[in-house]
Amino acid sequence: MPELEDAVCPICLLEEETPSHLLVYCPFAWNIWMASYKWLGISTVLPKEGINHFLQHTFFCWSRNQRRGAWVVWIAVIWSIWSHRNAIIFKEGDIDIDKVIDDLQFKSWIWLRGKFKDFGCSLYEWQTHPSIYLSLL
Ligand SMILES: [Zn+2]
């Protein structure tokens, strides 16, 4: 039978390791979300429930392709948090928010280039002006 301490988040040791905590509300994840929103030029608060966090991303965009682009970015953030978290826990890596941001910018750029044939900006352009290129989708 698992012990209670086995359910505590190994990154912050503050709360139970639920999906919402792991990917959104753990201080580690929260800092990544805030850095991501800053990069995207978005001012927001994080909703309490994980599903609302996902749905909130549909409100930043108006066209169908813009919503799809925002979801690609959301998935890149989630995937980068998950990957970096696993590296910290299983490979004794260090918390490096800048590395996670670099990773999610690269992943979202690659995935957007694969999904939208007109998404032709360079990685540098994506990293420096993401809201412009999301608005052009
Ligand atoms: Zn935590």
What is this structure, in a nutshell?
The chain is an all-alpha fold. The protein has helices spanning 19-25, 27-40, 50-56, 64-90, 97-115, 123-128, 130-135.
Give an account of the 3D structure:
This protein is an all-alpha fold and 137 residues long. The protein has one domain (4-135). It has 7 helices and no strands. It has helices at 19-25, 27-40, 50-56, 64-90, 97-115, 123-128, 130-135. 23% of the residues are buried. The structure holds zinc ion. The site of zinc ion has 7 residues, from loops.
**How many beta-strand elements?**
0
Structural class: mainly alpha
Bound molecules: zinc ion
Low-confidence residue ranges = none
Separation, N- and C-terminal Cα atoms = 50 Å
Supply the number of structural domains: 1
Rg is: 16 Å
Features:
single chain; 137 residues; mainly alpha; 7 helices; 63% helix; binds zinc ion
What secondary-structure arrangement, pairings included, does this model have?
Layout (H helix, E strand, L loop, with lengths): L18 H7 L1 H14 L9 H7 L7 H27 L6 H19 L7 H6 L1 H6 L2
Bound molecules: zinc ion (ZN).
